[in-house]
Amino acid sequence: MIKIAPSILSADFINLGRDIDSVSNADIIHFDVMDGLFVPNLSFGLPVLKAVRAYTDMEIDAHLMIERPIRYVEGFCRAGADIVTIHVEADNISEISRAIDIIRARGKKAGLAIKPGTGVGAIAPFLSRLDQVLCMTVEPGFGGQSLRMDVLPKVREVRKMITDYGYDCDVAVDGGVNRITGKLCAEAGANVLVNGTGIFEAKDRGTYIEELRGELSPYFDI
Fold this sequence. Notes:
- The chain has helices spanning 16-21, 46-55, 73-79, 93-105, 152-165, 181-188, 197-200, 205-216; strands at 3-6, 28-34, 59-65, 83-87, 109-114, 132-136, 170-174, 192-195.
- By secondary structure, the protein is α/β, with parallel strands linked by helices.
- The protein has an 8-stranded parallel β-sheet.
C-alpha cells in the first residue's frame, strides 16, 4: 500500500494546526528534527512534537537528523512519535543498534535512514529489526531540493534486499518527491513517499494527496 507522508517542515508554523487538518487524509505526519550539527539547519524538537501529538491522532514519524540519536530516541518515543527514524551515519554501529533496541522496547516502529552517498550495505546489520528504511533522495537538512535520480537504483536495491530476506518493512523516500518523481520512486519499490513542498503549496491539499495516492498505487500494491 502506498502511504503519503506530508512533511510539516513545509507547513506554516503560525498555523500548524490548520495545516495538519488540511492533510488529514494523508497517512503519516513526517516530523523533521534537525540539530544544526548532523545537518546545517535547525528545526524543532520535543515540545513541538508533544503539541502535534496532542492535536492529531495521525501516525507521526519523527525523522531525527541529529548526531548520537541514542541520547534522544526515548524522549521522542515518550513525546508521542509512532515511528522514530534515525540516521545510520549519525553514530557507530553499536550505538545505532542500541538506539533501535530502545525504540522497539518502547513499542514504537524503528526506522533507519541513509543519505544519498551511503551504500545499502550499511543497513544490513539492522534490517531484521526495522519497520522502515528511509532513502534520502536529497542531502538532508534543506527543504525544496530536487530529487537525485542516482538514488533510485539504491531504492530498488533496498526493496530487493527486504523482499529477498522476507522482511515486512516499508521503504520510504524523502526529498524532491512530487507527482512526477513519485512515480519513479514507487516503481523502484518505495511505498512511503514524504512530500513537503508539493503538498503544502497545493491549492487543495486533500485533493492533491488523493490524486497522488491514486496515481502511485498501481506501481506498488501490497
